[in-house]
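Example record

One chain of 143 residues, shown exactly as stored in the release files.
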Amino acid sequence: MEYITKFYINYPDIVRVAMIPMIIAILAIALPLLIQTISRIEDKYNSTKLIVVFKKESIYKSFWIILFLSILSFICWVLQLPRIVDFGVFNGVLDNSAFLFITTSTIFLIIATLRLFGLILTYYQTEKLLNRLTRKYKKSIKT
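Predicted structure tokens for this chain:
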């Protein structure tokens, strides 16, 4: 337990130097890339239906959910709400829950961004896109 306490002592610095810039960087890179991707899909394939398919992808939806949770975790960290009730053994975890929330959400946001970039690459390559859409179609017929 002492190791955990020592680790959490400098967590404001960790959040300020690592977590918040990572969230901002992903916002600054991913959002313009998404807008460009949607525009390029429409131009390349001359299809607005394909844009609808792209927006229905689970990777795309999960990216937005995780991005929202990351922003929410940042807000929780900024507010630094005090613990109201004494939970005994769990007080250490609860006192540092904002740090745990922002750390976890940032890690998941990085993973979701990498998955989204992979999806974008798939949509840019006609053969890979055709294979993906064929697999999804066959999967939907089976269920």
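Notes: Residues 2-142 form one domain.
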